[in-house]
Amino acid sequence: MFKHWRSDVEAVLTRDPAARTALEVILCYPSFRAVRRHRRAHWLWTHNMKLLARIVSQRTRRITGIEIHPGAQIGKGLFIDHGMGVVIGETTQIGDDVTLYQGVTLGGTGKDVGKRHPTIGNNVVIGAGARVLGPFTVGDGVKIGASAVVLKEVPPYATVVGNPGRIVRQAGKKPANADLDQVNLPDPVKERIESLTRRVEQMEKCLQRRIPQECEDCQQECCDDCLKNRKEEQKDEDL
Ligand SMILES: CC(C)(COP(=O)(O)OP(=O)(O)OC[C@H]1O[C@@H](n2cnc3c(N)ncnc32)[C@H](O)[C@@H]1OP(=O)(O)O)[C@@H](O)C(=O)NCCC(=O)NCCS
Hints:
binds coenzyme A; 6-stranded mixed β-sheet
C-alpha cells in the first residue's frame, strides 16, 4: 500500500512543469490523492473488504472527480493531469509511468464479461477525453491523442488519433500504409445507390429491346428475368 509513495510524488513533479515541491503535490494534486486512495481501496478489495473498498473509491470520486474501480491494477508513477472526469474500470491494468489527462475513460464496450477493460503498457500517454474501450492491450510507449476512441489493440510505440482510433505514427515515423486522407472518405450509401442506378438502367435497356439473347449490355441475371417476362407476355398475346 505504501511502497509507491515516492514514485507517485515524482510522477507529478517530473511530468507537470507547474508542480514545484513535493509538499505542493501531496497537498494540492487530485491525481496524487486519487492514486493514493486507490491503493488503499485496492488493498481492501483484494483483502475481501469489497464494500469498504467501494465506499473509499466513491468518496475519492466525490473529492477528486476521478473514478477508479478498486479492482483496477495500477503500476507505479501514474499521473492523472487535472483529473476531473477520468473513469478507470474494474479489470483495467495500468503499467508504470502512465500519464492520463482529464476526461479519459478506460472502459468496456458492454459486450464483454470477465476481463472487459484495457491493459495499458508502460510509459503510455492518453490525451484529454480519449476513450479506450475493450479488453485489449495498448503497448508500451503508445501515445493516444486527445479525443481519440480506441477500440482495438495498439502495438508498442505507436501514436493513435481520431475516432475510430488509427495509427498515424509508428516509432515516430508515418506507417507505410497510412491513409490520412480524411476528406475523401468512401461513401458506401452513395456507392450502393450508383450501383442500383446502373442496374436499373441495364434492365430498362433489356426490356426495351425485348430480345434478351441479344442483350449485350446485360451480363447479369436480369437476362433470365427478361426471358421470363417475354414468355409471359407471349402467353398473354396468344390468349
Ligand atoms: C497525439 C499526441 C500525443 C502527439 O503525438 P505525436 O506522436 O507527437 O504525434 P504528432 O504531433 O507528430 O502528430 C501526428 C499526426 O496526428 C495528428 N494529431 C495529433 N494529435 C491529434 C489529435 N488529438 N486528434 C487528431 N489528430 C491528431 C497531427 O496533426 C499529425 O498529423 P499529420 O501526420 O497529418 O501531420 C498529441 O497530439 C495529443 O493529442 N496529446 C494529448 C495532449 C492533451 O490531452 N493535453 C491536454 C492538456 S490539458
